[in-house]
């Protein structure tokens, strides 16, 4: 019975789009005297909101850009009725596809005590060059590069951008590394509860700000690069695919890897590549 209740609670999982995320219940815990396991309920963070219907059910309005949700039906002109509604809906519909390339920074000096000293290693600089060459070889017209303001991401961006001349760069604190949400299964050696509370809201804000279907005014498909960090990318992938976000730590990303998300005009999302480093020689691949 306890297991069934846990499954029912789990159906309250991932929240869609600009509503909040993050609640699932998982049937794990310490065995009771009778041998059954007590369900361990993962409490939603304070910044979480309402949840979507249940696991495995796609929420078409995950980014709160579904046309019908953008029309104020109370202000409908009753004289024109459905004809006007159809016109308004067409005006709100996305027309273009967004291609989002999520790049993990290259290898860096992890032992430096200050963040500003965590610069790229010689191998890391080689990795960034290879990633830049790979992106350039795709022959795509990239619209912009948005990157984390942390040192390793800035240096990776500087090297990659040399291979993509003319593409504007934008720095943001939203994409800085952090702990998005307590992972499941949990890790015994890493429980920064305060960090989850602080970083989680920021990383969720990055997701809502950058990952969504195209604006209705966008006429052509876009190709955008985001250079940031493993935790941020893993969380974004889970959220975009509407997988339980607590599973982010189950994914692994190499340094300088390319993850490719596609967001269609109807809001459907596809993952074309996850942590691709097939363009690097084996001796240049690392995950530190």
Tell me the layout of helices and strands.
Elements: H1 2-10, E1 24-26, E2 40-42, H2 81-92, E3 98-104, H3 122-137, E4 144-148, H4 151-161, E5 168-172, H5 193-210, E6 222-228, H6 230-240, E7 258-263, E8 269-276
Parallel strand pairs: 3-6, 4-5, 4-6
Antiparallel strand pairs: 1-2, 3-7, 7-8
EC number: 3.1.3.16
InterPro entries: His_Pase_superF_clade-1, His_PPase_superfam, Mito_Ser/Thr_phosphatase
Protein name: Serine/threonine-protein phosphatase PGAM5, mitochondrial
In short:
With 288 residues, the chain is α/β, with parallel strands linked by helices. The protein is built from six helices and eight strands. Helix content is 27%, strand content 15%.
